[in-house]
Design a protein that fits this description.
The structure is a homodimer. By secondary structure, the first copy, chain A, is an alpha/beta fold. In chain A, 42% of the residues lie in helices and 20% in strands.
Amino acid sequence: MSNPLFSTHEQLLKDAVAAIEKRTYWSAFPEIPSGKIYGETANENGKAAFESRLHQPYPLTLPSTVGQTGSERSPYGFALEISYPKVDLDPLLKTVLAAQKQWRAADPETWAGVSLEILQRLNRRSFEMAYAVMHTTGQGFMMAFQAGGPHAQDRGLEAVAYAWTELNHVPKTAYWEKPQGKNEPLKLNKQFKVVPRGIGLVIGCSTFPTWNAYPGLFANLATGNAVIVKPHPSAILPLALTVEIARQVLAEAGFDQNIVTLVAHEPDNDTPQKLALRPEIKIVDFTGSTKNGEWLERQARQATVYTEKAGVNQVVIDSTNDFAGMVKNLAFSVSLYSGQMCTAPQNFYIPKNGVETADGHLSFDQVVQGLVDSLNKLLGDPGRAVEILGAIQSDATLDRLESARKLGKLVCDTKTVAHSQFPDAAVRTPLVVQLAASDHDYYLQECFGPIVFVIPVDTAEQALELARMTSLRCGSLTFAVYSTKESVLNAAGEIAAEAGVSLSCNLTGGVYVNQSAAFSDYHGTGANPAANASLTDSAFVANRFRIIETRIPV
Amino acid sequence: MSNPLFSTHEQLLKDAVAAIEKRTYWSAFPEIPSGKIYGETANENGKAAFESRLHQPYPLTLPSTVGQTGSERSPYGFALEISYPKVDLDPLLKTVLAAQKQWRAADPETWAGVSLEILQRLNRRSFEMAYAVMHTTGQGFMMAFQAGGPHAQDRGLEAVAYAWTELNHVPKTAYWEKPQGKNEPLKLNKQFKVVPRGIGLVIGCSTFPTWNAYPGLFANLATGNAVIVKPHPSAILPLALTVEIARQVLAEAGFDQNIVTLVAHEPDNDTPQKLALRPEIKIVDFTGSTKNGEWLERQARQATVYTEKAGVNQVVIDSTNDFAGMVKNLAFSVSLYSGQMCTAPQNFYIPKNGVETADGHLSFDQVVQGLVDSLNKLLGDPGRAVEILGAIQSDATLDRLESARKLGKLVCDTKTVAHSQFPDAAVRTPLVVQLAASDHDYYLQECFGPIVFVIPVDTAEQALELARMTSLRCGSLTFAVYSTKESVLNAAGEIAAEAGVSLSCNLTGGVYVNQSAAFSDYHGTGANPAANASLTDSAFVANRFRIIETRIPV
């Protein structure tokens, strides 16, 4: 008997399945932080709920608790002073294994129904989540609401839809009758049981704690796996809230709430490594550094490991019909959340002889100046600037920004922007540095943060070749090309396919290269070093379960 | 423009896709080696074609050939004396990379159409293939025909159907329009390009060179990957024939025939290791020993690795309504191809106090004697025995058989059977040795060949627990249980799910535990150490390609 939550959410699931098959525009969770949608007092209530969490232990009861941990600081300049249960891994894993047996025994309908109920509850808490994400990641409020709330929920739903689609390819039973000429046919009844892999470990990152964690979290739940969520020490709150809601829904649905647990830990200790190598962990979903991601891929041999790591995103500017639209679009792309997005562009290849535009030829310097002017215009008003830029999430990014100033010609220095509401917030405008095409040591690596390298090249062909080589060597999640020539766009398409990177052509309006829409855009491809999997395709879910067959003669 | 071969075979593909969704009985390629189906002279022609290959170089022209290799011996007692092109890996890989670009540029319809044409041509050569398989593996003719020909072709077709299903979840284009309230909606055209991983390496085994290789081979081709086939040095001929046909079809379809190549090599050299670690190899499909399979999983980090390794298959006898049917069924299962099947049962757990049958209680010794009597009856006539047993494929198996005689109480010794047509064939009847439940050193490992261990246990529960522990530790592909009690069958079902092994209950008729039917039975589960993947499910194909997106504003 399936859980009644399945019928409650069946239409939503059907709509989501239809959406992933078409990949046109679709969204289940409204992205506008409007009182008309979320309730007139939703913002105040969410803010109050966030504030009520501060300066005290988080009200989450976990098994095998041996203390408290937590030292999050808001990038807007204050300590959250929230502590979370600290768990002892040995007994925790025993408890989760026991809970996992119960979840395994449920059916795909129940896995989907419970997953969708969790997503619906998360949606209702989107304002509270927005403040939690804002004050752990440094995102501006609007982005924290959208990327931390409805967009992350959409990504979770998308994973459930893929899981459901794959599970539905497996018939539950089959009657097999093989003719034997004149003799009686052979007859068997067959049962095909979907068996989850075991326990999935979801390792969250510091910049998009929910958006990057929900695909793995919900892909696991929807295929019957228990989930241990290990947040980044600087962004625990959004995932603690997620785990709290998941546990409430599980308990209400009659399940052991330890099917979803949280392992918070101090910065720089070896909890993640210890956990990831445990034999009980059969799946790992990771977002973070290349170093940690590659370590997991190499060492966590007992598990199937999905990683999103660092990458270098690139822009090739060859020519354009809309120079103003181009620089406006690019200025926003590099400014949004201070470039602290795995999809933000870093390397800009521009012909040293300049580019053709609808308004005539522009020199290299004019193109760069156009970009700088556009940045200044976009970020000229501090009130608006802080909403776009958010705050710098970590001191490492501030250090990186400072070092990058010395790498080449300083085209546009980074500036500090005063935040009227949070005077201690670390708000910085993007830095633009001009390098040479030969400066491989500098631009063939991810410089995470508001750092833009403009690189003069001989020709568009050289630009494309540099982009190809960089993507294959360093990995890339996004690639933007501006050209009015079919031949250049086609060549970029070839290179994108070879380097396994998503391509955006001539974005000049309200779509930005760093944005990735659930149900339509694949995030990451698994085809270059930036990620070994895509969010979300069939490959992301198909390995999270096995099929065990039973044959019984009729 | 898709290749016209797609429309030629479109109905076959549709039927295969329908079959994998239902997993009832279906087969595309007739398994009866009948002149009425394959042509009145098909057998003579096939035999003549096989014989015409002997004692000379195989007529296959490969790029980068630097010599000849090949030292196959028929297990029926003669040397084939066929030599094959020996290739230089460095230039070969360059050539294959170039060919791969052309294949990548084709579309899913073309990949499927060409794959299906290869399968159809292989089907027409099934008699020739039967002799090639018989005289490399030692299989009896009927099995060599079925498992080497139509059943292998069905497994290949099944992989194409799974690949096609997964590729069809990816829309080729999408128009994305996102509402913006009162403003103009955002509008993008999106293209989703399926991009294969690169070059797939398919490593064949010595006992089922085609059956175990075709799923990986055709899953790769159908997802746009080039394929290098590396046969086992003792079973090159069946895969040389396969590669020859594939190259003919590719050339006729206007493609570079180096999309499929063969790397034959001397026994015990390091060609497989060298090849498997090449950066150009992105997928490895392997069937063989646990040692080599685990080495690949650990070392071939640049590739996605699918392995089928050793396992210990088990039978639990608790009680039966049809003792005669049970022992007849089991006797055949252990005799077929002298137990040289990865699915053949090895460990038989039988209560020391005996079992209940429809004819009353039988003691442990009576149960074992029943099995021995059934073996003697099945194999009493040498003419019939040699057809069932085939010949022992390798000297290592003969040595293992000899050693196993000394492991415990010799219940039924192995006997040599004279083959009237091939006096030098190594034909042996199964050995039955009684061990103790404590003899873990002996029965917790695969003893490949006609070796049966009967193991007295206290209770059915102990038997099931031993089976569980053995499967989890050593891996298993099959698990058979005989019981008239619901409770025992249910407990076996639980254990099968936990240990990730396919379960067969009370097989007493013409279906045997070691048989696995394409389009219905999953072969291997990926959920225990015997295999990290299943033939064939979505997970087997979904990781063989990536999706690269392009976004262009409207």
